[in-house]
From TrEMBL:
Sorted UniProt keywords: Cell membrane, Cell shape, Cell wall biogenesis/degradation, Membrane, Peptidoglycan synthesis, Transmembrane, Transmembrane helix, Transport
Species for this entry: Aceticella autotrophica
Protein name: Probable lipid II flippase MurJ
Gene name of the record: murJ
Pfam families referenced in this protein's UniProt entry, alphabetically: MurJ
Any one GO BP annotation for this protein: lipid translocation
Origin organism lineage: Bacteria, Bacillati, Bacillota, Clostridia, Thermoanaerobacterales
Amino acid sequence: MSTAKKTVKTAGIIMIITLMSKILGFGREVVIGSRFGTTHMVDAYNMAQNIPMVLFAAIGLAIATTVIPIFSEYLTKEGKDKAYDFVNNLLSIMLLITACFTIAGIGVSPYIVRLMAPGFEGNVFLLTVRLTMILFPVTILIAISNILTASLQSMEHFTVPAMIGIPYNIIIIGTVIIFSSRFGILGVAVATVIAALTQVLIQLPILYKLGFKFRFKVNFKDEAVKRVIILSIPVLIGTGMQVINTYVDRMIASYLPEGSISALNYANRLNGFALGIFSTAIVTVIYPSLSRSSALNNTKSFLRWLNFSIKAIIYVMLPVTVCAIVLRVPIIRLLFERGAFDERSTYLTSIGLMFFSIGITASGLRDVLSRGFYSLKDTKTPMYNGGIAVIINIILNLILVRYMQLGGLALSTSVAAIVTTFMLFISLRRKIGKIGGKEIINTFVKASSASFLMGIMIYYLFRELSKVMPDGKLYEAINLFGTIVSGVALYSLIILICDRTALRYLKVGLKYINSKLAGN
């Protein structure tokens, strides 16, 4: 099997696993929404989750991003033992740092909550502090899980890391269904910590089968650790900027009417569903290939992989954007509107989803382009880009929230993503020369035109079917599903006619599926 076909197959498997995880993630949001609605309890839980994410998750992700090239280098040149020594040292150092960070964070939680949620007062403030104290140990688990994931991916083991979200969501869903009436939102927070622990435990057995054995060793003078730190600092700042964007939205939303933070969270979850499935799968599989091409100074191969991923994201994300905008209300009503999640909750969430969706394609492209720069050992350009995104987001937040409230916060995030993605394209062209811009623009025009036609069709189709179908969740689900399938069919037909490349990859996918059905 060729490298390209293997990549398509691996990405497909990851997409399927990620889809399962995302469905469970939606299930988690549905049961939380059904049990707690868009109340101050969910606001407090979401803010308490964001606090350790803002303060440390970016560090874990930055380190994981830089582990792959260094681990691969050791694995190729000096063997597994040396590579595992590097991982053990890094794990031990991160355990020490995150443990100290967690203890300190728990101690100053009231001050952190006051700083990061200045609009919270009274009971919601006290509840957020308690939840923050419970959730702080997640920082340790995030750091460990990211290092384990990077190590497995470096050895081309993608499946298990992609699966870690499945038990995570099952544990939280089970807790909400079984224990929420007794323990409330505090029980959900404890379950979140336990769920994060499973993300570590599910990966360790695979590493042990590959010969890894954890040994606690701390050597701050290790050259590999120094390289990780040096490369991670710009990645950390750039990644942190994206997280800060989310925090700024939540902070300003804390001044808006009750439920605004929860509505932003639900809308962002929906928006991240497709982004997580397709963008994550593409970036995960492409990143090692980009790194290898860069290490070999093979610009042609590098551009081939980069253009492949860019076209894939454009072709997938643009129709998703249109579907999310046109069908946002029935989608939210079907998925969330039950129990405490009422019509007002649907309305607020639909506003956030519409404006978040505008930037979903840009967000996917930004992820791919950032990995391209990391592969070229340029971690500073995405960092500068992230800083500009934060500035744009804050300025637009302060302006648009006055006129659009919740919608202004979501639109600011999308505009920042679009502007900074254009800047990444320009920076990459300056760095390596021509990057196939005409082909990318051509792809965008085809996808935009097909998405526009699809949007018109699904709008009228859903409206007309709603007039003739009986009331009820089941019939609305049938209507929504049929409309989306019809829209996808129309869009796919237009793209397959216009782009032979897309047709070629479809044939590869169908051939692979047929071989599996035949037992080959």
